[in-house]
Design goal:
A hairpin with a 4-residue loop joins strand 17 and strand 18. Helices cover 23% and strands 30% of the residues. The protein is built from five helices and 18 strands. It folds into three domains: 81 residues, no CATH class; 86 residues, no CATH class; 97 residues, Immunoglobulin-like (Sandwich). It is α+β, with helices and mostly antiparallel strands. One of its GO terms (molecular function) is transferase activity. Belongs to the AlgF family. This is Alginate biosynthesis protein AlgF.
């Protein structure tokens, strides 16, 4: 089960560094394994490699060669078959609607409409879009993307009214730390230099310009955050019980006079060829 949870997490979008760090830390603690130099080299290569289930499964089995190797080999084969992966160069895209007025979005040709808005579920899960191509409709009308999608990686699209262009925000992550969670903040309030703070405590992100994003690794602890535009402060938003490797986003929406902080856990849909 432990091996399965690690590979499941990797297939949902953990970076190579996070996957390897968590795997190494987990099995050093659990089995007291000392890795030989040849396998440490494999680890270093895996740190920057895109995830491929068979390759990472094979690496995991090699690392556990003296510890129930046959059992873990079978699990690795199972994981390679269960979790299909998109083509190289695919970009993972989600759509966020900062307005309290919900819209229906269709991300991808023939996709099922999803209702999103700041008063409820603010955004979609990440979805792999092969080749950087993107078909997006908002309330049944084609949407124009204001910007170029990167080759690979993660992107958040900020939706506006139907027919309006959609802003691209590239979701870059801090240096991976398999023992921590990741918190990202988006300032979607016009004319506001935002601060995201621990409620009643220190600033987590300061001077966040409108339309921008910041991210950092955090200890997976319980906390409540608020967002401020100058003297105007949002109601507190409680973080869920995050675990190591989780990624969570908060979005400051509304107006500079009445900001609102909304959160969602980052999730990635399983890949299905369409």
């Amino acid at each position: 089960m432990l091996f399965r949870s690690l590979l499941c997490a990797r297939s949902r979008g953990l970076s190579g560094a996070t996957f390897v760090a968590r795997f190494r830390a987990t099995f050093r603690v659990t089995f007291r394994v000392t890795f030989p130099a040849s396998l440490r080299a494999s680890f270093r290569a895996a740190l920057h490699a895109p995830f491929r289930a068979p390759a990472h499964a094979a690496l995991a089995v090699a690392l556990l060669g003296g510890v129930h190797g046959a059992a873990y080999a079978a699990a690795a084969d199972d994981m390679a078959q269960l979790y299909a992966l998109p083509p190289d160069g695919s970009v993972y895209v989600r759509v966020v609607n900062p307005s309290a007025v919900a819209v229906k979005v269709q991300l991808g040709a023939g996709a099922k409409p999803e209702t999103i808005g700041a008063a409820g579920r603010i955004g979609t899960d990440y979805r792999a879009m092969p080749g950087g191509t993107l078909t997006l409709a908002i309330d049944g009308k084609p949407a124009t993307v204001a910007g170029t999608l990167p080759h690979g990686g993660f992107v958040t699209l900020i939706a506006g009214k139907a027919g309006a262009s959609v802003q691209v925000v590239v979701d870059e992550s801090p240096a991976a730390d398999g023992m921590k969670a990741e918190l990202s903040a988006y300032n979607l309030v016009p004319s506001c230099a935002a601060a995201i703070r621990v409620a009643g405590g220190p600033t987590v992100f300061g001077s966040l310009a409108s339309g921008t994003r910041a991210a950092r690794a955090i200890n997976p602890v319980s906390a409540s955050l608020d967002g401020a535009c100058g003297a105007h402060v949002s109601a507190a938003q409680a973080l869920p019980a995050l675990k190591a490797g989780d990624r969570y986003s908060v979005f400051l929406v509304g107006t500079a006079e009445q900001p609102t902080l909304v959160g969602m856990l980052n999730r990635t849909e399983p890949w299905h060829a369409r």
